[in-house]
Amino acid sequence: MTGKKYMYIVYCPTNLHNKGRIVRFNTQRLDQLGARLFPKEVRDAYVKHHGKYNPMQKEIQAAIKVGPLFVTGHGQSLAYNWKNHGMYMWRDKERAPRVPINYWGYIQHINLKKLRPDHAIRFRLSSHGLSVPGGHNLTFDRAGNAYFWTNPGWCAYLFKGKIHHRSVKFRLTKQKLRHQPGTRIQSMAYNPARKRLLLISDASVASFPKDRLDGQGHLTNSCFEWNEFGPKREFEGIAYDGHSGLANLLVNHVPEVLISNRSF
């Protein structure tokens, strides 16, 4: 999300193999049309009745912009930088689910008018001479710091860095998490109202104060808030409008955006 007006969602059908598109929703206009009260109207906006669209469908379609196909990779890392007002995502192409094609990292800058990348930055992440695959998730805080997290198998690693117009730099923070939410990494988010970073997994969310990653890091068990949900819906990601602190949760398997009833 880039504020209270627009929500951006990446659609990556499995059969397209690392390709997808970005769809922009004018949430203010959709609210005026009653989309929150009647979400099926949005779901069926492109389903013709007797060979044509009705007036309400045309109104809803006018509030939705569908971008072109491009190489997205896994497609769960679209993130808005509140500092420079840029939108970025990893181009994390996979040979198979969670198996990267190579060890290069690619960050794409998204043109918000055309809803496609206008340039990409290629770089390598390395640790003690060993290459580390790029991330599958991404988020930014208000100061423009970028974050992502990984799980190589023995603990969760947290990375922090900066993404500039032509350069990317990440460092592995001093914090390594022995326990993580869920079993499969899905996404990462930042709540600007509470100044907390969120680690999103399969039907589980953990959060902690982002300032505790500074310097050598000072995360303790008491820093964390844990939330476990029913495992019937796969969590894809959480986004915030930058003001209210209410979480907008994208779930899969009957795709839907749910909003929290309190700051989360």
How would you explain this protein's 3D organization?
The chain is mostly beta strands. It has a single domain (6-263), classed as Neuraminidase. Helix content is 7%, strand content 46%. The protein is built from 3 helices and 22 strands. It has a 5-stranded antiparallel β-sheet, with no helix packed on it. Strands 1, 2, 3 and 4 form a 4-stranded antiparallel β-sheet that branches. Strands 12-13-14-15 form a 4-stranded antiparallel β-sheet, with no helix packed on it. Strand 21 (246-251) and strand 22 (256-263) form a beta hairpin. The longest helix has 8 residues, at 55-62. The radius of gyration is 19 Å and the shape is globular. The chain starts with 5 loop residues before the first strand and ends with a strand. The relative contact order is 0.12.
Brief rundown of the structure:
The protein contains 3 helices and 22 strands. The chain has 264 residues and is mainly beta.
What is the fold's blueprint, element by element?
Layout: E1 6-11, E2 19-26, H1 27-32, H2 39-43, H3 55-62, E3 64-66, E4 70-71, E5 79-81, E6 86-90, E7 94-96, E8 99-100, E9 104-111, E10 116-127, E11 130-132, E12 139-140, E13 146-150, E14 156-163, E15 168-177, E16 185-191, E17 196-201, E18 204-209, E19 225-228, E20 235-239, E21 246-251, E22 256-263
Antiparallel strand pairs: 1-2, 2-3, 2-4, 5-6, 6-9, 7-8, 9-10, 10-11, 12-13, 13-14, 14-15, 16-17, 17-18, 18-19, 20-21, 21-22
